[in-house]
Every structure is written in structure tokens, then in C-alpha cells.
Amino acid sequence: MGLAILKQNVQDWITQQWVILFGEKVDEETSNWLLGPFGTKSGIGEKFIQELAHKEELNQDKSTHAKGILQSINQLKLPQTELDKLSENVIDFYENTSTYNLDLKVKWNPFFKGFGVLLRLLFSNRIEQLNVPIKNNKDSKAVTSEIICLLDGQTKKVKRTIWLRTFKTSGQVVYSGVYETCTIPKGQTCVKAIFPLPNGNATVILSPSVGKNGELILTSSGKTIGDSGFYFLLNDSKGNKWTKFISSFKDKLVVSSENGSIKAVQTLTLWRFRVLSLEYQINKKHSKY
């Protein structure tokens, strides 16, 4: 059995040892679809971006041109019939994310709000990650949306895309995630969102589809390792990688467009109970400011 790295915060050690006890060792040769950057003990947030660029010998793209979560919607490899239905506004958002502003509304299930408080006290504030507001807010909160592309020094091609979201009023990091696509073992292309944590990460793999009204639907609802879903990954004290698939935790994101305005509704469920709903109102920067 593996042992989590000892020299770190006790709450991090406990959660990592839980992953080792109840998870599985990762075969790196066959699990490239799952692997992604790990955080360090010194913090996540913006510091992680600098550390990642240094570690992988990448250069930050300082150009002012529009940058997207995806370089092209074709990376999703949707069937042509679905791609033809997909809203052009939704496509533009994914390909030119940096040109949009976000406003966020939060609605907790009161039975799970205590979990959110515990998450913030033990982890979020300290590691600058997953800082979801605890209070439900009827009025939306403005969120900055920065796309940071890290380029290969020789080819100048994008190797890593980070989506950094912070609250405009406080500057507090809401999410800092590495976004890319991957092909899961069953052969489907999915969106992979990697949120670095101390000595590991939380990875959400989302299966894409297109709704009848042209909305993009991303779901993580698999049943076992190898499916779309929520994964914890970490390095143990000997450098071995471990993962725990959380099958009870589901994530559904619906990004739609109506009358030129884009809305994204994210619903997180645990054991089929709604835990949290996040609603983003998305507008072109020049149209609002």
C-alpha cells in the first residue's frame, strides 16, 4: 500500500491517504487520457501557472488576440449532425472565451451548505482553488475570465490552456483549471478540466452532446474508471500515481444561447441529490462595458 507524502498540511495528507486506501494505482503507460498537471504544496492560484510554465519549459502567450477554452470546436469531434445544430454563439464563446464577461449566481441545497463551509475552511481559502460562494445570491457577482495559453518554445503551439476565474470585487480566485480534450478508453472525445491541488489534482471529464435547441451539454455521469466523471489524482511518497473515481458525484453543464445572450447552468449532484447550482450570464465585453 502507498503512503501519502508526509511533509504537508494534515488535512491534505488525510484526503490523499483516503485516495490511496480506496482508490487504484495508475498505470501511466495506459492512462494518458486521465493524467494532467499536479499542484504543489506551496499553493495553487496564479503561482501554479508560473510553476507549470517553468516545469514544462513553456512560454506564456502575451499577445492580445482572442483566446478560447478550445482552439477550435472541432476538437470535440462531434458528429456532423450535432455540430450543424450547435449554436454559433456557443461556438464563439468556446473559441474566444477571453472576449466575454461572466456574472455568477449561486444556489446551494441547504442540506449540503455545511459541506461548502467545510471545504472553504479546510482547503479553498488556503490553496486558492474551488472558492464557491457559500451564500446564495439573487444578484449576480461579476467574475473575471482570463484565458492563459502556454506555448511550446520552439513550435509556438499551445500546449496548455488555463482558465482563471476571479471575483472582480475581491480578486479572489474562484477556479484555476487546465482545460483540454481527451479520448476516454471507450473512444469518445471529452472535455477534461484539471484543477490542481497539493501533490495532485481534481479532474472532471465531461462528455459533450448537443441539445435540440443548439445548446452544448457537458456531462460527467460515468459509473467506473474509464468513463466520464470526477477523479482525484495524486503522487504518493514514492512517486507512484493513484486515482479515486467518485461515481456518486455528477456534473452537468448546459451552455445555451437565446436572443444573442449566452447562459451556462452547472448542476452538481451527489447521490442524485442536487448539491449546488451555478448560473453564469455570459456577454461580450464590448456589449456590456
Description of the structure:
The chain is an alpha+beta fold and 289 residues long. It has one domain (10-288). Helix content is 20%, strand content 40%. It is built from six helices and 14 strands. The chain has helices spanning 10-22, 45-55, 80-85, 88-95, 113-127, 285-288; strands at residues 24-25, 58-60, 100-108, 141-152, 158-167, 173-183, 189-197, 200-210, 216-220, 229-235, 241-245, 249-258, 261-270, 273-284. It has a ten-stranded antiparallel barrel. A hairpin with a 5-residue loop joins strand 4 and strand 5 (158-167). The radius of gyration is 19 Å and the shape is globular. The relative contact order is 0.20.
Low-confidence stretches: none
For the sheet with most strands, the description reads:
10 strands, antiparallel, barrel
Residue fraction in strands: 35-45%
Structural class: alpha+beta
Tell me roughly what share of residues is in helical segments. Answer: 10-25%
How far apart the termini lie comes to 56 Å
How would you describe the shape? globular
Number of strands: 14
- String of helices and strands: HEHEHHEHEEEEEEEEEEEH
Rg of Cα set = 19 Å
Spatial strand order of the main sheet: 3-4-5-6-7-8-9-12-13-14
Number of domains: 1
Number of distinct helices = 6
- Rounded average pLDDT: 87
